[in-house]
Amino acid sequence: MTDFGIAGKIIRLQNFSDSRAIIEEEIKRGATTIVIVGNDETFGHVLSRAATCEILFGFLPVGDDNTIAGVLGIPVGVGACDILSHRRKVRLDVGWFNNRYFVSRLHILPSSITVEYDEKFQATAKDRMELVVCNLQPFEWESVGKDRYTIHPQDGKLEAFLRPITRQGWFRRPIFEEPSIFPFEEMVVSARSPFVVEADGKESKETKIKIKLARKKIEMIVGKERRF
Known about the structure:
Blueprint: H1 19-28, E1 33-38, H2 40-50, E2 56-61, H3 67-72, H4 79-86, E3 89-92, E4 95-97, E5 100-102, E6 105-111, E7 114-117, E8 121-123, E9 129-134, E10 139-142, E11 146-149, E12 158-168, E13 174-176, E14 180-184, E15 186-199, E16 202-213, E17 218-221
Parallel strand pairs: 1-2, 2-17
Antiparallel strand pairs: 3-17, 4-5, 4-16, 6-9, 6-15, 7-8, 7-15, 9-12, 10-11, 12-13, 12-14, 15-16
Helix pairs in contact: 1-2
């Protein structure tokens, strides 16, 4: 980073760190760019809390579990420094649900849920079903091969992947149908019993959530090989 003329204050985050408060304090001190160093989990941990901060974000991916970096066109490791130095900027969509933001994706574990989207369509299943709402992080599933669906995080919509369970396999492992994929602007998910929601590394139990695009967009440095 030093060789590329990139220097600044280094802040090490803990699980309980309030990234929004930290970044807002650094903005007051004159910071103009925040660079997140880590993997998908780090990226989501910071931006799900700091999505409303008015500042340019960069990403330097290191280690394993870096699917978001590929979407942004940022290589893992030292090659990311070249991307940061060129400062190619775009504005990206942000997801919102129940007064929380998510940048990567939202995952509802297999549950007996009812899904209604855009106030027009409703989906249920005889058994449980899994729901994944993607923004930046791709969704992968196993079928004949291993499929990956990359999202366009500037199209003004979120994409949902709905997979009902068809039967139980060996060791009670669920067997899913091929996912139904549909874009939407607003979705309501409800159930009689609490279901588990994972969003950018944070987990909670809910009985009803509303999912939609936030009005806020994030300004992010990306590479020319980005996938959108």
